[in-house]
Amino acid sequence: MKEKLTLMIPGPTPVPERVLKALGRHPIGHRTQEFQDIVENTTELLKWLHQTSEDVLAITGSGTAAMEAGIINTLSQGDKVICGENGKFGERWVKVAKAYGLNVQIVKADWGKPLDSLEFKKLLEQDKDIRAVIVTHSETSTGVINDLKAISHYVKDHKQALMIADCVTSLGACNVPMDEWGIDVLASGSQKGYMIPPGLSFVAMSKKAWVANSISKLPKFYLDLKLYKKTADKNSNPFTPSVNLYFALEEALKMMKEEGLESIFKRHEIYKKATQEAMQSIGLPLFAEKDYGSPSITAIAPKNIDAEVIRKNVKNNFDILLAGGQDDLKGKIFRIGHLGFVNERDIIAAIGSIEATLDQLGVATKPVGTGVGIASKILMENK
Ligand SMILES: *Cc1c(COP(=O)(O)O)cnc(C)c1O
To answer: Could you tell me the pTM of the whole model?
Structure first.
C-alpha cells in the first residue's frame, strides 16, 4: 500500500483535509471583492500569528523569496551586515547577502551548536555602522534553535541595525512575538508551520524596516515590497497571487486560531520532548543537545550505521518520509519533522517505525517498543 505516505520532513508538511478542500475550489478573480475579503481576513490572521501590529505581506514564492525580499528592501550595496551561520540556511543568507554586494561579517558556530548571542553583542557594540543582523531562528538543517530573543535584544540596543530573521520553521511552532522581541523583518513560508502546500511566503516589516526601505538602493522589481504594501493596504496584490493557496491559507489560519497559539506551541514542545527522549532511550544520540533542540525538527546522529540506511528503510517499510542530512551531514544524520499538522499518532508511528527498522537491520540495542513506551508516557502526561 503506497498511497498513505506520511511526511515527517521539515517541509512540505502534511496538509489537513479542510485545507485540501479549500485548495480544490475553482480559482476566482484576484481583482474581485470576494478575493479582497480573503486578503483582508488573512492579513488580520497573519498579524495575530506574528503577534504584531505591523505589516505582514504575502509573496507568491517559497520561503527564500521572503528572506531575499527582506534583505533587498532594507539594504544597499556595501552595507555592513552580520550573518549568523550554523547550518545550511545560515549559509544561504550569507550567499544572498554576498550576491547583492553587502559587506558581510559572519558569526559562526559549528553545525549542531547554537549561535553565541554575546558575539553579536560584542560586534554591535564595536561598530555603529552595522545595518542589519541576519539570523536563522530554527536552523532546520541541524535541528538547532538559536536564541533570537537575546540577539534581537542586542540589535535593538544598537539603534541603527535591523533584525532580519528567518522564522520559517519557528513561526507557528514556538513563540515568536515579533513586536515584543523587536524583530524588524520576519520571513516565513507556507509549507512549514502553516500546514499548506509550498508556494506562498510571508514577510513582516516593522516601522524601522520601512524607514530603512526608504533609503535602500538594491535593485528589485517582483520583490519590491513597496508595491506589496501599497496593494495590501487595499486588500490586494501587485501581481497575480496564488489564488488557491490563499483559500488554503485562510482555512489553515482559521484552524490555527481555533487551536490557539499557546496550544500550538505546547503541542510542538511536547512532540519535541517525546521524540528526543524516545530516540535517546533506544541509543540514538541527538545531533543537537536537548536544551537547544528545535520545536519543529529533531536531528538524530546514529553511531555505527549509515543514517540514510535507516531513513530509506523506514520509508520502504512504513511509508513514513524522514529527512536526511545535508552536505557534510549526509549519511551522518536523519531528521524527524514534527512541525505543523502533526498529532500524537504520527509521533508514535515514527518512533515505532524507527525501532522496528533498527531491529530489522540487526542494530537495535533495546527491545522494540522501548522508545514508544517513553514517548507515549510523555504524550499522555500532557493530555
Ligand atoms: C524551508 C526553509 C526555508 C525556505 O526554503 P524554501 O525552499 O525557499 O521554501 C528557509 N529557512 C529555513 C530555516 C527553512 O527550513
So the answer is: 0.98
For residue 196, report the distance from its CA to the centre of ligand 1, in Å.
14
Q: Is 381 exposed, middle or buried (0-12, 13-18, 19+ CB in 10 A)?
A: exposed
State which fold the 261-381 domain adopts: Aspartate Aminotransferase, domain 1 (3.90.1150)
Kindly list the protein residues whose Cβ atom lies closer than 6 A to any atom of ligand 1: 10-11, 62-64, 89, 136, 138, 140, 166, 168-169, 189, 192
The domains of the chain are located at 17-258, 261-381
What is the SS3 assignment for 103?
strand
Looking up cell 504524550 gives 379
* Mean pLDDT per 10-residue section of the chain, whose length is 383 residues: 90 98 98 98 98 98 98 98 98 98 98 98 98 98 98 96 98 98 98 98 98 98 98 97 98 98 98 98 98 98 97 97 97 98 98 98 97 98 92
In CATH, the architecture of 17-258 is 3-Layer(aba) Sandwich (3.40)
Give which of 62, 65, 11, 378 is closest to 222, Cα–Cα: 65
